[in-house]
Write a structure and sequence with these properties.
The complex is a heterodimer.
Chain A: H1 14-17, H2 37-40, H3 58-70, H4 92-98, H5 101-104, H6 116-133, E1 137-139, H7 145-162, E2 169-173, H8 179-186, E3 190-194, H9 204-210, E4 215-220, H10 233-242, E5 246-250, H11 263-266, E6 270-272, H12 275-278, E7 293-295, E8 307-311, E9 314-318, H13 335-371, E10 388-391, H14 402-411, E11 418-419, E12 428-431, H15 439-458, H16 460-465, H17 477-482
Parallel strand pairs in A: 2-3, 2-4, 4-5, 5-6
Antiparallel strand pairs in A: 1-7, 6-7, 8-9, 10-12, 11-12
Helix pairs in contact in A: 4-13, 6-13, 7-8, 13-15
Chain B: E1 8-9, E2 14-19, E3 22-27, H1 29-35, E4 38-42, E5 49-50, E6 55-61, E7 65-69, E8 74-79, H2 82-85, H3 89-92, E9 101-105, H4 117-124
The chains are: A alpha/beta, B alpha+beta.
Chain lengths: 493, 126
């Protein structure tokens, strides 16, 4: 079989490229006596035969992996307006910082005296995140947003229990990210859902009726998942605070307000930040990420330990924290991601961050203005922030669903936006362009989306058959979910 | 969307068919259309007591996971085992082979309090 081909040709597995005896490099002839492993390792179970690994030359491996990477769509290959995910360009300077040997080669067991640079960076990053959120202390252990949510809820629980006031429920809006109720349930809370009003914002009167002495807290993202700022946030937080409950801020949408508004000033006591989204780590490929939690003074004693402390001019890990909820991660979190976040923050500076969020909001509104003629906003009452949600319900008349529209966008060269979320918008399509795209890219995407909507009326089969330009066409998502296959097997079964 | 006249309905898009105290439950044609391809149905074991208006199971589609709400109070006496291997029956035949459970109702007249086909059509605009 050919070992090269056009970019979209089918790529066989590494096993199909294998030839007996082929190697990447040759080892010198054995010049010591051969040892029988069974004799050298008594009592150890040994394999009868070598594992059947593919046998390839180094160039074969490089080409195989390069071709596979070309079949992937990432932010470095094209526009990726995936709502709620902030798929922005990640500046290479952040990668360069994380690759500095002093950070990259530091052993996690290095004594504090040999890790002063990294400890100092974490200390300084904590001050940055505290300033940006309007809170006071942070833990860097959570490996991503969902673990940050769980950590934040454990802190809320620890706070109430420490006061002898164990509470039972967490309130979550019906528009929330699915991880919110999942994290609350995982933390042992009963989840109470507060409905959205007709304008897509939290129904504050309904919220008032749900809050009682059992309410431990409210989880909220602001702007919310329809991309709209919760303008009643001051009233919302005073209702919760009057009942002795805390507010949790889901930082997934922090890109909309970073450098301009602070969750701490809105009444939140705990925030998780997806620093891989909002700052500078490539994401979407399965990690690693980082989801630090930032808290107010009253939650700080419960943070996962250890935390970085500063004695005079010397940094150290402080593990003497009797009220800590304990560890959430081995060692100190995904430090490489945190170095990238720090480099990004220093590169932009305070004014740059304020400009970042302003441009993210401007870009979203610029695209929305061009496409809402063909796909109306789910909640047109309020101007969207950094992302907007439209409804494709009108396409049903042509027998076309939003999923078909998304597949057609792939043929037109764009990664589809988030679809079917949030659940409160029928046939939802959620677009988040981010601040890093040029006007030309935004124009091209808006034109493609409008073209696809027009085609739904004139040639619906074109959408239902899409995508046709990719190595793999329309996947059977139902079958994939029903008969999950997570590893390659030699017989193809 | 089909809404058979001989069934009763809930606001949460379940249907109920009474045969004395034994009431068969499923989800409506409208519900399966909204959910999209169903990939998994989680149903309680026979003998489980369910309470009117409370969640008793889940339907997972390629789009979302949704709770199933009990239209009335009673005990599960039968569940559709076929859905374990063929959840697509919920899409293909929601009122027939896609049925989910049979509840032995504690108060069989609760069925009469559910929505009629006309009420349900009004609710869904279908």
């Amino acid at each position: 079989m050919p070992l090269m081909g056009p970019p979209h040709a089918d790529e066989p597995t590494a096993f199909a490229h294998s030839r007996p005896g082929r190697r990447a490099s040759s080892l010198p002839v054995l010049d010591v006596p051969e040892v029988d492993p069974a004799g050298a390792l008594p009592g150890v179970e040994l394999a009868d035969a070598p594992i059947a690994l593919p046998e390839l030359g180094e160039l074969d491996v490089v080409r195989h992996l390069t071709r596979l990477s070309q079949r992937n769509h990432g932010i470095d290959a094209g526009f990726y307006p995936l709502g709620s995910c902030s798929m922005k360009y990640n500046p290479r300077v952040a990668d360069a910082a994380a690759a500095l040997p002093g950070f990259r080669d530091l052993h996690p067991w290095a004594p504090d005296s040999a890790a002063q640079g990294t400890l100092g960076l974490l200390w300084d990053l904590e001050r940055w995140l505290a300033e940006l959120t309007g809170l006071s202390a942070a833990s860097f252990q959570p490996a991503a947003g969902a673990q940050g949510e769980l950590t934040g809820l454990m802190l809320i629980r620890a706070y109430h229990e420490d006061r002898g006031d164990a509470r039972r429920t967490i309130i979550v809006p019906d528009s929330a990210h699915g991880t919110n109720p999942a994290s609350a349930a995982m933390c042992g809370y009963d989840v109470v859902t507060v409905p959205s009003g007709p304008d897509g914002l939290v129904d504050v009167d309904a919220l008032e009726g749900l809050v009682d002495g059992q309410t431990a807290g409210l989880m909220l993202t602001n702007p919310n998942t329809v991309g709209v700022f919760e303008v009643e946030i001051a009233r919302i937080s005073s209702i919760l605070r009057a009942a002795g409950a805390l507010l949790y801020y889901d930082g997934a949408n922090f890109n909309a307000i970073c450098g301009r508004a602070r969750p701490g000033d809105m009444g939140f006591d705990v925030v998780h930040l997806n620093v891989h989204k909002t700052f500078a780590t490539p994401h979407g490929g399965g990690g690693p990420g980082a989801g630090p939690v930032v808290v107010s003074d009253r939650l700080a004693p419960y943070l996962p330990g250890p935390v970085v402390a500063l004695d005079g001019e010397t940094y150290r890990w402080d593990a003497d924290r009797p009220k800590s909820i304990g560890r959430l991660h081995g060692f100190h979190g995904n430090v490489g991601v945190l170095v990238r976040a720090y480099a990004f923050l220093l590169a932009l500076g305070g004014d740059g961050l304020a400009q970042m969020s302003a441009k993210a909001v401007l870009n979203a509104n610029y695209v929305a203005a061009q496409v809402t003629g063909s796909l109306p906003l789910g909640f047109p009452q309020h101007r969207p922030m950094h992302e907007f949600v439209v409804t494709g319900a009108s396409l049903r008349a042509h027998g076309v669903r939003v999923t078909d529209l998304c597949k057609r966008l792939i043929d037109l060269g764009f990664h589809p936006p988030t679809n079917y979320f949030p659940l409160i918008v029928d046939e939802a399509l959620m677009v988040e362009p981010t601040e890093t795209e040029s006007r030309e890219t935004l124009d091209a995407f808006a034109a493609a989306l409008n073209q696809a909507v027009a085609e739904a009326g004139t040639d619906p089969d074109l959408l239902r058959a899409a995508p046709t330009t990719t190595p793999v066409g329309r996947l059977d998502e139902a079958l994939a979910a029903r008969r999950l296959r997570v590893r390659w097997q030699p017989d193809g079964g | 969307m089909a809404t058979p006249d001989d069934l009763r309905y809930t606001q949460e898009h379940e249907w109920a068919r009474a045969d004395g105290p034994r009431v068969t439950i499923g989800i409506t044609d409208y519900a399966q259309d909204q959910l999209g391809d169903v990939v998994y149905v989680d149903l309680p074991a026979s003998g489980t007591r369910v309470e009117k208006g409370q969640p008793f199971g889940e339907v997972e589609s390629t789009k979302s996971v949704s709770d199933l709400y009990a239209p009335l109070t009673g005990t599960i006496v039968e569940r559709n085992e076929t859905l374990e291997s063929s959840p697509e029956l919920v899409n293909a035949d929601p009122y027939g082979r896609g049925w989910m459970v049979v509840i032995e109702a504690e108060q069989p007249d609760e069925v009469g309090g559910l929505l009629s086909a006309t009420d349900y059509q009004e609710l869904t605009g279908s």
